[in-house]
Fold this sequence. Notes:
Helix content: 40-55%
Number of domains: 3
Radius of gyration: 28 Å
CATH superfamily of the largest domain: eRF1 domain 1
CATH architecture of the largest domain: 2-Layer Sandwich
Structural class: alpha+beta
Shape: flat
CATH topology of the largest domain: Translation, Eukaryotic Peptide Chain Release Factor Subunit 1, Chain A
Strand order of the largest sheet: 7-6-5-8-9
Family: Belongs to the eukaryotic release factor 1 family.
Keywords: Cytoplasm, Protein biosynthesis
Bound molecules: zinc ion
Number of strands: 16
Order of helices and strands: HEHHEEEHEEEHEHHEHHEHEEEEHEHE
Largest sheet: 5 strands, mixed
GO molecular function, one term: translation release factor activity, codon specific
Function: Directs the termination of nascent peptide synthesis (translation) in response to the termination codons UAA, UAG and UGA.
CATH class of the largest domain: Alpha Beta
Subcellular location: Cytoplasm
Amino acid sequence: MSSNAEGASEDRRKYEFRKVIEELQEYEGSGTQLVTIYIPEDKQISDVVAHVVQEHSEAANIKSKQTRTNVQDALTSIKDRLRYYDTFPPENGIVLFSGAVDSGGGQTEMVTRVLDSPPQPVESFRYHCDSAFLTEPLEEMLADKGLFGLIVLDRREANVGWLKGKRIEPVKSASSLVPGKQRKGGQSAQRFARLRLEAIDNFYQEVAGMADDLMVPKRHELDGILVGGPSPTKDEFLDGGYLHHELQDKVVGKFDVSYTDESGLGDLVDAAQDVLADQEVMKDKSQMEEFFEKLHRGNEATYGFEPTRKNLVMGSVDRLLLSEDLRSDVVVYDCPNGHEEFEVVDSRHKTPDHVCSECKEEAEVREREDVIEHLMAIAEQRGTETKFISTDFEKGEQLMDAFGGVAGILRYSTGV
Ligand SMILES: [Zn+2]
């Protein structure tokens, strides 16, 4: 239960972040007056406050009175928000946005948004003041590439580590005692060659041991392993069966990389961009393929807002599939005779009137809520996993266009 619930709330948080980012991207300031601050978790709040106070006094030099006032108001608002924190930010840090945005007709509106504990750690302190909010670092955190094991090696050294989201974490390194190709005088050529091969073999074993220690315990969470190095080293290493067989099965690609120190891990990730992009869509693809398979088998899948909601409430949905592009609200209506009905409307549209489909009476609006939040709340109560599906592939587009962005894979055939 706990891992399921945690997964669900993490997805929900990511969705909430995505929505805030989309909102922030829409805003524009008439001058350089929109302030963004990224605070890493190890930065003292008092240091940040001091920085904000400093910026506030420097803003007194801004020539345009309007911009000056707007920047100072934004900084005051940020300072007020920072009062709610203890000595240090919560896990992964804080991102603050504040400023006077254009609200049309020459008017401005003050907007302040605070995001606690983003999905990845804020890497460094950033103060940014511009005519737009700085959202790119947050967008990168949300572009979740999952968890990948990284191995770079040549015959001299090796490094292993993680790719977590977009962040590279070096963990362990090793260097070898493999002698160079030059043999010493007096040694027979064959003996030298044999010793050298033995040393290479030992080194590969050491590297594999290092990778096994790190990655075998995480093998079930791993989305893949990337291996880099010059040829033929990485090929010898992979073909020689040095890695634990379960890790070997997780290798999604090998790449030419010239450096095998810590910087080589970054080169490896750069070289693997296409494979990583495929991997990202691949998870979504397999969800959609399973959905279609079960749909064709009959009664093992559901789609559309109302049928999916009904199955969710009954607890019969194993996985809720939601399109990443879904931006709609659900309006819940009550008719005088106690019938509950729903209508899904575009988030930007007004709430329509509704006549009860059963008794034809005029129904009253009980509430209007984001469709995704509405469905995820039910899913969380029922222990149903939620998966967001991108529209970057055909079946993902179909989910959005043909199924209203909502579908479910059922736990069992409902026989309906
Ligand atoms: Zn009714």
